[in-house]
Known about the structure:
By secondary structure, the chain is mainly α. The chain has one domain (about 1-164): dinb family like domain (Four Helix Bundle (Hemerythrin (Met), subunit A)), CATH 1.20.120. Helices cover about 60% and strands about 10% of the residues. It has helices at about 1-20, 20-25, 35-55, 70, 75-90, 115-140, 155-164; strands spanning about 60, 95-105, 105-115. Strands 1-2-3 form a 3-stranded mixed sheet. Strand 2 (about 95-105) and strand 3 (about 105-115) form a beta hairpin. The longest helix is centred in the last third of the chain and has 26 residues, at about 115-140.
Amino acid sequence: MKNVLGELLNKIALITEQLKPDEYSEALPILMQNSIGKHIRHILDLVECLCNSSGTGEINYDARKRDNKVEASPEYTLAKINFLLYEIEKLDVDSRVLLKQKIANEEIEIESQINREILYNIEHCVHHLAIIRIGIEQNFPHINFPKNFGIAYSTVYHREKGEA
Length: 164
């Protein structure tokens, strides 16, 4: 699964490379005044939180570090993606981790595993890629998307099965 998460980050890099800095950071009405850069920052922040958890045995996405430089700079974002690709490779997928989160004013703790958290990050990433795609298609039609950008893996499999 690490390779799937890596492929998604590489797709983000392909999009980021095509956007001009002002396009990347522009507040878009269709995204509730958020930018492509803000959505990418959100994705990368969670992946970084996952990578940082391997040494602590705990993961708390609510307490993640928010790297605002990612929102503003495509160049910085590409460097961050390369760093995270390296960090993902070092993850021990069988390691246990304690997931901490606050839901409806209740603090919860759930035993999890790095593998499970990679899967969560994959699904979370695809969801945000779909939102990013909407923003780009509506505002920056010159951007070329990698195959299946923002489409859930289950949808891809279903479509392929239906076409077979």
